[in-house]
Design goal:
Jelly Rolls, mainly beta, 24 strands
Length: 303
């Protein structure tokens, strides 16, 4: 399992050799726009419109009339979110939303980035994304082991937690499907199951209405959704200890739109702070030098 977003630095009660070895091994990867273009972004600030021009609004699937915009605390910050509310059965009472991807992405090369929470059916199948017009049980799920999965071929290891906002990335391209949970790559496998079908509709949180495995649904809330044309790639974020009791954090330049952030605790809700000083470019790398202080610090690149 490769690490996507964070590097931890422990600075107290650690022998130098142990720390240096840990730092050398702790290479983080971050989702980059290199090779992918942001084509739609939804912030759910009282509407379902995209903040990126040219992208259509999401279409609410709301058979019970209970979907709503509310305010919630997401990763320590109060912000608007979109609640979807339905019933697992009958399938016609499931709620969520759809996105028409026509003209935005090709069917077999795209990336989806979401921050959302599920509130029901822990330990059972729950649909996240459907690309087959609700006509097949195949798709992107949280499985009964509470892990991300593309049914029926690929599953992962890290637990997905109910009632907690999770950061999920799905990439599809070149016949390969990959998924990330809170910055950790969960799986990467060869398949075309997530290629978008001819209608170009992408369904979120609503399960299939024909074939087997119906009713795999959970209510929830979503704070953020992005759609990219192409596959988000993963350049490395590295950290090296110097001889002056400091660390140098570096990553490729340019990495447009990314900011180095740090936190002292990864336990939810983690509070991430933009790093100071700003990076300088050295030999094609963005570089920041920080003193080692306190017990631990974790770094990530955030867009």
């Amino acid at each position: 399992m490769s690490r996507l977003t964070t590097v931890g630095v422990r600075a107290a009660r650690v022998r130098t050799m142990t720390l240096v070895a840990a730092l050398a091994a702790a290479l983080a990867l971050v989702p980059s726009v290199n090779g992918a273009t942001l084509v739609a972004e939804y912030q759910f600030n009282g509407n379902l419109a995209s903040s990126v021009g040219g992208a259509p609004a999401l279409v609410s699937v709301d058979p019970l009339g209970l979907n709503a915009f509310v305010t919630d605390v997401v990763n320590g910050q109060t912000q608007p979110v979109f609640n979807w509310v339905g019933n697992a059965a009958p399938v016609t009472q499931q709620a969520g939303f759809t996105l028409d991807t026509t003209g935005l992405v090709v069917t077999n090369s795209y990336s989806v980035e979401m921050i959302f929470k599920l509130t029901q059916r822990e330990g059972q199948w729950r649909r996240l994304i459907d690309v087959e017009d609700r006509q097949s049980d195949d798709g992107f799920y949280v499985n009964p082991g509470n892990q991300l999965a593309v049914y029926p071929i690929i599953s992962s290891l890290t637990p997905f937690t109910n009632n907690v906002y999770e950061h999920v990335v799905l990439t599809v391209g070149g016949g390969t499907i990959s998924a990330y949970l809170n910055g950790l790559q969960q799986f990467s496998g060869t398949s075309t199951l997530m290629d978008i079908r001819s209608s170009r509709q992408m369904g979120f949180f609503i399960d299939n209405v024909v074939a087997g495995g119906q009713g795999e649904f959970s209510n929830g809330s979503i704070a953020w959704l992005r759609l990219y044309a192409g596959v988000l790639v993963t350049p490395s974020l590295s950290i090296i200890r110097t001889s002056t009791n400091s660390v140098v954090i570096s990553w490729p330049s340019p990495s447009a739109g990314f900011t180095l952030q740090s936190t002292t605790n990864l336990v939810s809700p983690a509070v991430w702070i933009t790093n100071s000083p700003a990076p300088v470019v050295v030999n094609g790398q963005n570089a920041v030098t920080n003193p080692i202080s306190g017990t631990q610090k974790f770094y990530r690149l955030s867009q």
